[in-house]
Amino acid sequence: MVSNPLPNLARWLGRQPWVMGTARFVLPTERLIRALSRNRIGVLDIAGLPSLRMTVTGRKSGLPRETSLLYVPRGEDFLIIGSNWGSRQHPVWSANLRAAGTALVRLHGETFPVSATEIDGVDRERAWDLAVEFWPGYRVEERLAGGREFRIFELRRR
Questions:
Q1: Domain that holds residue 137
Q2: Are 135 and 72 in contact (CB under 8 A)?
Q3: DSSP per-residue codes, 94-139
Q4: 30 within domain boundaries
Q5: Model-level pTM?
Q6: Considering the domain boundaries, does residue 22 fall inside one?
Q7: Domain containing 114 — which CATH number?
Q8: DSSP secondary-structure letter at 18?
Q9: Distance of alpha carbon 153 from alpha carbon 117, whole angstroms
Q10: pLDDT in tens, 13-43
Q11: Does a structural domain hold residue 95?
Q12: Of 94, 90, 92, 86, which is closest to residue 116 (Cα–Cα)?
């Protein structure tokens, strides 16, 4: 059986600093692929990387906000990292998730509620090590973010 070379290619690309500058192209491409596939697949899926679709209530608007995210598997739970492509600002979804504490996740055609816990302290160090081992590109994003500590959340099925 031939294995999919795309995850390894994606991991290599994720370690290249110039890739973070492609967000302005990747994000519209993500929306287009999602629209054409009726929300079944996105850019991360095509790259063979684990992705989930998260819907969280906007802390200011009260409206549902949806985003696609790379996740790090951790047992039956999921880690998501607020790297924001190495931006110096936290991603909006992380502030919304921090305020709401819950979200809906769509994964492999299934939608289910999750509770979200922001990880800190020693647990954060362990989670960060796991995340970087899984997606080495987080180190590049960390350097680009100029010292901003990424928010790390654990999502657990409710």
A1: 50-157
A2: yes
A3: HHHHHHH-EEEEEETTEEEEEEEEE--HHHHHHHHHHHHHH-THHH
A4: no
A5: 0.85
A6: no
A7: 2.30.110.10
A8: G
A9: 5
A10: 777 778 777 777 777 788 888 888 888 888 7
A11: yes
A12: 94
**Mean pLDDT along residues 120-148:** 93
Beta-carbon contacts of 97 under 8 Å, excluding residues fewer than 6 positions away, are 54, 56, 103, 116, 153
With contact defined as beta carbons under 8 Å apart, do 112 and 75 qualify?
Answer: no
Q: In 3D, which of 82, 74, 17 has the Cα closest to residue 56?
A: 82
* Cβ(89)–Cβ(144) below 8 Å: no
DSSP codes, 19-48: GGGGHHHHHHHHHHHHHHTTTS--HHHHTT
Percent of the chain scoring above 90 in pLDDT: 59
CB 135 within 8 A of CB 70: yes
What's the pLDDT at 5?
A: 72
Q: What are phi and psi of 58, to 5 degrees?
A: -65, 130
Q: What pLDDT is recorded for position 21?
A: 73
145 with 102: CB under 8 angstroms? Answer: no
Contact 68, 29 (CB under 8 A): no
Residue showing tokens 């692929």: 33
